Amino acid sequence: MIRFNKVSLKYDKDTYAVQDLSLKIEEGEFVFIVGKTGAGKSTLFKLLTRELKPTSGSIKVFKDNIEYISNKNIPYYRRKLGVVFQDFKLLEDRNVYENVAFAQEVIGVNAFKIKKHVIKILNLVGLRNKATKMPYELSGGEKQKVAIARAIINKPKILLADEPTGNLDEMSTNEIIGLLNTINQNGTTVIIITHDMHLVERMNKRVIRLDEGNLVYDDYGLDNQIKNYLKNE
Amino acid sequence: MLSYVFKTGFKNLGNRKLFSFASIGTIASSVLIFCIFFVLATNIRGIIKKVETTVGIQVFFNSNLSEEEIQNLANEKFITDYVKSIKFKSSNEAWEKFKVEYFDNRPELAKAFEDDNPLASSASYEILLNDITKQIEYVNYLKSIDGVRQVNYSSVLIETLTSLNVGISTFSFILIGLLIIIAMILISNTITLASQFRKKENEIMKLIGATNFMIRAPFVIEGFFIGLFGAIIPISIVLGLYNYLMDMLIKNASFLRNVFTPVDIKIIAVPMCLISIGTSCFICMFVSFLTIRKHLKI
Predict the structure, then answer these.
(1) Which of B139, B134, B133, B138 shows the shortest CA–CA distance to B152?
(2) Do A75 and B204 touch (CB under 8 A)?
(3) Around Cβ A184, how many Cβ atoms within 10 Å?
(4) N or C: which end of chain A has fewer CB within 10 A?
(5) Residue B69: strand, helix, or coil
(6) SS3 sequence, B4-45?
C-alpha cells in the first residue's frame, strides 16, 4: 500500500531531512513511527500527505507514485488519507457536529448525507451526546476524538496521526489508542508518529525508528536500545 | 458545495465588520457617483434629444434669388448625412405667421401692408439635424454656400449642453477611477485579513482534500457580497430620491420647464442597476480572486 524506495529529501546542500529511506507498509497495518526530535518523523508525515516532495527516490501509495501527482489532483489524493494532529486543529468557532461535518462539506457531500454520516461517526467515537458542545467545553481527550472523527468521516484508507496523544493524560491516551485500534481493526491502515515509548512498548505493534533521517529499526515491539533506555529512566 | 461556499463567504463578511464596512462604503461611494452621473447624463441626453427635434437651423437667402432658385439650391446643396428634415417656408408663409404672432389682436395694423409683403425676401429653410453636436460644422458649411445670406441657430444652448455633458463625464470618470483604486486596496486588505483569520481553517481544508476552488471560492463570494451591498445601497438612495429631487428642480428652476422633462425613472432604473451591480460585483470578485491567489498558495 505504501512503499518508500530510497527516498531522500535535502533541505540544503549537506542537510538531509530523510536519507535513502526504504520501507513498506501493507494495507491494514498498525505502525508506530518513532525517533528523536529532528529524526525525520514529521518529514515522513509531510511526504505522505504530499506537502513535501522527495528530492530523490520514489513514494508509492495506492499504486501511484505520489511525487508525480499534479497540484490539481493532490486534493483527491488527500481524500484517501485521514490526518490527526497533536494540537487537534479544531475550528474554535464551530461545535463538535460542525467540526466533523466540515470535512464532508469541503469535499462537496450533500447536507442530508453529512448529517447521517456525522451522527454515525460521533456514535463510534462516543461523542454523540456532545455534538452541540464547543471545543472549549471539551477535555483534551474529547477534542482528539473529534479530530479523529473528522479524520475518518470520509472513510480514508490510511489514517496518519502526528503525536495524537502528545497533549493527553494517561487515561485519555489509552482511550485514543483504543479508538485508533478499533479503526485499524475495521480495515484502515493506521500510522502513528509518537515520542511516547511507553505507549509503543505497551501496544507491541510494528515500530519504525528513524534517527537523523535514516531508518535504524523496523520490527514488532521496541528495539533493545530503547528498551534499555526505558529501563534506566 | 455551493451552499457551503455562499454560507462561508457571507459569514466572513460579518467576522470583520469594520473592514467589510470600509470596503462596502468605498464601493458605495463610487457607485453613488456613477449613479448620479448616469442620471445627469441620461437627462442631458434627453434634453439634447428634445432640442434636436425642436430647435432647428434657419437659413435665409440673398434677395436677388427667386423662390424657385432657392428651392433648387437647397435641393442641390443642403441635404447631407447630418440632415434629418428640411422644410421650405416661402416669404408669404413667413408673413402670414408673422401676422398671427404679432398682429393677432390688431388686424388693422396688418391691413396696412395688405398689398405689400414686408418680408418679401424672407423665404427660408428650417433644417433639423440627426445629431445636434454636428450643428456648428453644418452651419459653417451652409455659410460657405453662395446665395446664403444668413444662418440662424442656437449655438449657446448646444455648446453649453455638450460641454456640460463632457465636463460631467470627465469629472465623474476621474472621481470614480480614484474611488475604485481606493476600493480595490481596501477590498484587497479585507481579503488578506480574511485569509489570515482563516489560516487554520484553510490548512485543515487542504489536508482534508478540499480543492483549490473550495478554499478560494468563499473569499471570492465575500468579494461578491461587498460588491453587491456596495451597489444596492447607493442605487436605493438614487432611485428613492430621484422623483422628489426632479420635482424640486422643476419647481425651483422655472426656466427649465419648457426645455426639460425628467426622464422616467423606469427607463433609468434597469440599465443603471445592471451596470452598477454588474461592474461593482465583478471588480470586487476579481480583486478578491487576485488577492487570495497571492496569499493562499495551495
Answers:
(1) B139
(2) no
(3) 19
(4) C
(5) helix
(6) HHHHHHHHHHHHCHHHHHHHHHHHHHHHHHHHHHHHHHHHHH
B210 and A89: CB-CB below 8 Å?
Answer: no
| Nearest-CB residue to B209 (from A71, A72, A78) | A78
A106 in B contact zone (CB under 8 Å): yes
The predicted complex's ipTM stands at 0.80
- The confidence score (pLDDT) of residue B112 equals 63
Which pLDDT does position B103 carry in this prediction? 64
DSSP B95-123: HHHHHHHHSSS-HHHHHTTTT--TTTT--
Mean pLDDT for chain B? 81
The answer to whether the CB atoms of B201 and A111 lie below 8 A apart is: no
Reported as a single tens digit per residue, the pLDDT across B207-251 is 888 888 888 888 899 889 999 999 999 999 999 999 888 888 888
Q: Which residue of B has its CA nearest to A73?
A: B211
B208 contact A CB<8A:
yes
Question: How buried is residue B232: exposed, middle or buried, by Cβ count under 10 Å (0-12/13-18/19+)?
Answer: middle
pLDDT at A132: 94
Bridging pattern class, strands A16-25 and A206-211? unpaired
Cell of A21: 529511506
Residue type, B272: M
Q: Over 70: is that where the pLDDT of A100 sits?
A: yes
Confirm whether pTM is higher than 0.80: no
Half-sphere exposure (Cβ direction) of B16: Cα atoms closer than 13 Å: 24
- The dihedral of CA B205, B206, B209, B211: what is its sign? positive
Distance from C-alpha of A104 to C-alpha of A110, rounded to nearest angstrom? 8
